[in-house]
Amino acid sequence: MASERILITGANGLLGQELVRQLVRRNTYEILATGRNSLSRPRGAFQRFYRPMNVCDYARVKEVLNDFSPEYVIHCAAMTGVDECENNRQTCWQVNGDAVENIAKLCHSRGAYLIHLSTDFIFDGTEGPYREQDRPKPLNFYGRCKLASENSVHILGGEKTAIVRTNVVYGRSQGRVQKDFVEWVICNLKNKCPIQVYTDQWRTPSYTYDLAMGILRLVHFRKSGVYNLSGREFLSMYEFARSIAKAFELDSTLITPIVQQDRPQAALRPERTGLVILKAETELDYRPLPLKEALAHLRLRSQTNAIGPLTEDAWC
Ligand SMILES: NC(=O)c1ccc[n+]([C@@H]2O[C@H](COP(=O)([O-])OP(=O)(O)OC[C@H]3O[C@@H](n4cnc5c(N)ncnc54)[C@H](OP(=O)(O)O)[C@@H]3O)[C@@H](O)[C@H]2O)c1
């Protein structure tokens, strides 16, 4: 029997790479990994599954969907730099707003099941951690676009859609320029550079390994609606940085606690977000690794990477 087809947008990104990696390992679906660059960021075997597709190019998206005819689309492509979104609103709206609307319409017309990635930044951070049904109130432009995109998916995507909300995503990736928070902490501490981290930004950090697993469970059960997928621990970014230092045996005295008033960012950040994952635990049997284990797991994977240049086999 022919296997079902999954198309991933933003496959060069942090989450996209992990999804492709897990799907390749499972070997139960036919995969198409798409990204805006002509070549995939991870080289070697990844390239076999890869095709360029800028999600803002409507004609190209339509062509690729017609050609591959996926049963499932996992939409990871996004402009994710929150300050960049604040400063470059037009591009942010094109990628995080308009493109999602188009993809939702195209998936609906083709009968494809759409999973769209969203964020804790749709909330104002006064009452976190948040459940799926809590009332959104974004503080910055990124959050407003993401909330608008959730609405597009609800309205235009029909019943075969799911929204996955996540926050502070970290994991293993290759060839990316932008560092995730864990990479940023490790890189600075390894180089003996002092860092300042906020004590008044509370989150439930999400390991891509767990997040991808949760998303593939949604696909498997063909669930629709909103699902929070993140880690379980609710902690400040400062405490998170200290946990990273401990897990990677780095000098935590280089980390100084600050509050947002000490060093404001271009886009306002909510104080206490983070996500309650009870619905995913109950309905999907989603079991993210405890933070300590997740960081140990990541460290082990990074060490495997560090052994030498990646061969095609080593990529998975
Ligand atoms: N990272 C987080 O902490 C976080 C938190 C909450 C929610 N999310 C959501 O989770 C999803 C996945 O994020 P991520 O962590 O994997 O972020 P990421 O590493 O920044 O990945 C996003 C990917 O989208 C691609 N992209 C941007 N514009 C595009 C376009 N016009 N056409 C095609 N691809 C485009 C980027 O391409 P390049 O590789 O060329 O830059 C990148 O590979 C996003 O929807 C994000 O909003 C992330």
Structure, described:
- The chain is of the alpha/beta class.
- It has a domain at 5-178 and 205-230 and 274-292: Rossmann fold.
- Helix content is 40%, strand content 16%.
- It is built from 10 helices and 13 strands.
- The strands form 4 sheets. The protein has a 7-stranded parallel sheet with strand order 3-2-1-4-5-6-11, sandwiched between helices.
- Helix 1 crosses helix 7, helix 2 (58-68) packs parallel to helix 4 (89-110) and helix 4 (89-110) runs parallel beside helix 5.
- The longest helix has 22 residues, at 89-110.
- It starts with a strand and ends in a 10-residue tail after the last helix.
- Residues 306-314 have low confidence and may be disordered.
- The protein binds NADP nicotinamide-adenine-dinucleotide phosphate (NAP).
- Residues 10, 12-16, 35-37, 54-56, 76-80, 95, 117, 119, 166-169, 178 line the site of NADP nicotinamide-adenine-dinucleotide phosphate.
